[in-house]
Amino acid sequence: MKATETNFLKFLEGKHQFIIPIYQRTYCWTLKQCQQLWNDIVRTGSDEKASGHFIGSVVYIDRGLYHVTSVPQLLVIDGQQRLTTLSLLLAAFGKALEETEAKLETSRRKIESYYLFNKEEEGEEQYKLLLTQSDKDTFIRQIEDCELPATVSPRIKENYQFFENQIRKQEIDLNILYNGIKKLIIVDISLDRYRDDPQLIFESLNSTGLDLSQADMIRNYVLMGLEPKEQEQIYNSYWFPMEQSFDKNASTEQFDRFIRDYLTLKSPVGSIPNIRDVYRSFKVYVQAKKGTSIKDIVEDVYCYSKYFVKMAFEQEADLEIKQVLADINTLKVDVAYPFLLEVYDDYAQNILKREEFISILRMVEAYVFRRAVCGIPTNSMNKNFATISREIDRENYLESLQIALIRKGAYQRFPDDEEFRREFVVKDIYKFRNRNYLFRKLENYQRKELVNIEEYTVEHIIPQNLKLSLEWQADLGEDWKEIQAKYLHTIGNLTLTGYNPELSDRPFIEKRDMQNGGFADSPLRLNQGLRNLKHWNEIEINKRAVLLANNAVKIWSFPAVNLETENLKVNQILRSHHAETLQGETLKLFEVIRLRILNLDASVREDFKKHYIAYKITTNFVDIVPQKSGLRLSLNLRFDEINDPKGLCKDITNVGHWGNGDVEIKLSSLDQIEDVMFLVRQGFNKYSDDFD
User: Fold this and answer.
1) Angle, alpha carbons 506-512-518 (nearest 5°)
2) Over the stretch 334-389, which tens digit does the pLDDT of each residue have?
């Protein structure tokens, strides 16, 4: 690497061309940054004592090895924003020189010949700076002072116009401006392609505060090390379409989020990268994929990005699926995306039928919403959604997922109907984050002509006013204060109306019978049950709450799987595979040890093999081989790892056997259960540490 401090204008002189590689981000300087540059140049030009103004570095590498031309071509690794902005300023300055009658030491012809064009060259080689993607045509036409293309690069157009407007201001002296431009200093850093690693240098430059997104860094990492032809093929086929799909919908933050979710679903243990660290995590992922080409990796990323765009930006063509995705997004369940990406891929690969896919989406919606109503902390969902796909039997997809969710315990649980009903009727719905979503789903339950509840406001049937009228006190009874406090914000006392100010604190009968906007006159289903009531009191509040709760358990339904039936299926599988050995005392022994192992953690999965039964988290930690005389357990540990104070273990290293690992245990009596579980936990702990 050769670094030299040099004058910026001298740096541009001579026959050469700066090429912005295809993997670099597009031009993105804002008016704020242009204003700062302008101020620095004018201040420096006005200050006779200022010998120069430093504006940063330009890092490049000779392209000649790959692309032989009459004009030396230099690939810009860092500095395109400064090069482009100053070139726009020089173009605007040159145009102003031609229009002024003032005498200056330079001219438009000189500005263009020395700093913007290689005048003796033709075609693209005549331009000293060649941008990439959509920026290129806009920049070329801008410095040539031609009509801009139909698809314009907005930042190039805006920034050129900014400099043109600044120059036209009467108070600016073109001599001062030119004097400031002449004083600009850069560090010219040329790389040796045989000795310098552009990627490492790029990372070093961008670790010092250059505002690049994680997506920018990933794109550069993926493409920078490839030959130009392969760069263009991968960029045009995969990366550019992927970036376009995100640029149309959101900022690069969403792209960073997608990469995080992609890495999570690809992680063998479901680890979730920090959103600020996805570039480093992506590098680790790529480096671990030995034998897999960059093209194959990018193609896979592109495939999953299409699912993400369909979900996050609701671009799905199927209207029913699109609506479910919109409902899930309303609940802001970002943590479910790694799992949903995988399910989307299975649907796209025809592993899942459309109806099954919709059922899974609805189940995720119900799982998240029921937990929110029941006040279950959300932090456990990250790990659950990151790993639950490993519990799915692809040949029995929907049912196996239902069973996996039902079996979750503690903070990962799927609240059943009883718990959901109990919490639904007492929850403070008025202050609930998903209040509007809840009312939308309740009001439109079994409706084809959907009601837009955003046109309505929430109405408290018992008013919020702590000084209730005598009519309200009479309706509620002598305990009216306690009843108001207890039920005010609960679902039984809340409805929707378009006449909130008119209803105000009126007595119930007046709210019911108002000619315009009364409950009896309302087209909303939520108000139908209020039409014929003569009083509004604790009894009616509870009746309505129960009615709405009964609808809620149908809208956000619990998986319709009978675990007792499922357990019978398990026993049938066991008997079909191990009919000769799982009998009598051996069967009783197995049922006890099986339950103890499954209860170690909700993440433990059971897999029935022909010759053994496997128990796994990230991988098998114990395998059970049924025998007529008892059970033989294989622990997936090296023999020197096991802590075996009672000497129950046998070293089977390099000995052929069913199951995994080098540790064997014989279990022939219920009296041994505790000692055997002490050993089994060691295998579980080893792989659960990886899982965490």
Assistant:
1) 90
2) 899 999 999 999 999 999 999 999 999 999 999 999 999 999 988 878 888 988 88
Query: Angle CA(107)–CA(111)–CA(117) in degrees, nearest 5?
Result: 140
Could you give the C-alpha distances from 592 to 94, 331, 339, 669, in angstroms and in order? 87, 41, 32, 11
Do 34 and 155 form a contact (C-beta atoms < 8 A)?
no
Q: How far apart are CA 129 and CA 336, in angstroms?
A: 45
Query: d(Cα 149, Cα 347) in Å, to the nearest integer?
Result: 41
User: Which is more confidently placed, 209 or 250?
Assistant: 250
Q: What is the dihedral of CA 347, 352, 356, 359, to 10 degrees?
A: -40
Tens of pLDDT along 257-285?
999 999 999 987 778 888 888 989 999 99
Q: How far apart are CA 226 and CA 133, in angstroms?
A: 18
**H or E element, residue 621:** strand 620-627
Q: Which of 356, 374, 366 is nearest to 328 (CA)?
A: 366
Q: What does the block give as tokens for 683?
A: 């295998």
Contacts of 662 (CB under 8 A, 6+ apart): 637, 638, 639, 651, 652, 653
Tokens 């679902």 sit on residue: 491
What is the per-residue pLDDT for 66? 46
Q: Specify whether the CB–CB gap between 55 and 185 falls below 8 A.
A: yes
* CA atoms of 637 and 639, how far apart (whole Å): 6
- Alpha carbons 401 and 395: distance in angstroms, whole number: 11
Nearest to 635 by CA among 672, 666, 595, 607: 666
Phi, psi torsion values for 522, nearest 5 degrees: -75, 140
Facing residues of 55 across strands? none
Nearest 5 degrees, angle CA 29-CA 256-CA 18? 40
Residues 6+ apart with CB under 8 A from 552: 420, 421, 424, 442
Spatial neighbors of 336 by CB under 8 A, at least 6 apart, are 328, 364, 368, 381, 385
CB atoms within 10 A of CB 224: 17
Q: pLDDT per residue over 208-219, tens digit each?
A: 334 567 888 888
Answer left, alpha or beta for residue 343, where phi above 0 means left and psi between -120 and 50 means alpha.
alpha
CA distances 288 to 276, 281, 284, 652, 689, Å, are: 21, 11, 6, 31, 20
Asked whether the CA dihedral 553, 558, 560, 561 is positive or negative, the reply is negative
Question: Residue 112 has what pLDDT?
Answer: 94
- Name the residue among 339, 346, 390 with its Cα closest to residue 364: 339
Strands of 649-651's sheet, edge to edge? 605-608, 613-616, 620-627, 630-635, 663-667, 649-651
pLDDT tens digits, 70-108:
888 888 888 899 999 999 999 999 999 988 877 888 999
Provide the 3-class DSSP secondary structure of residue 408. Answer: coil
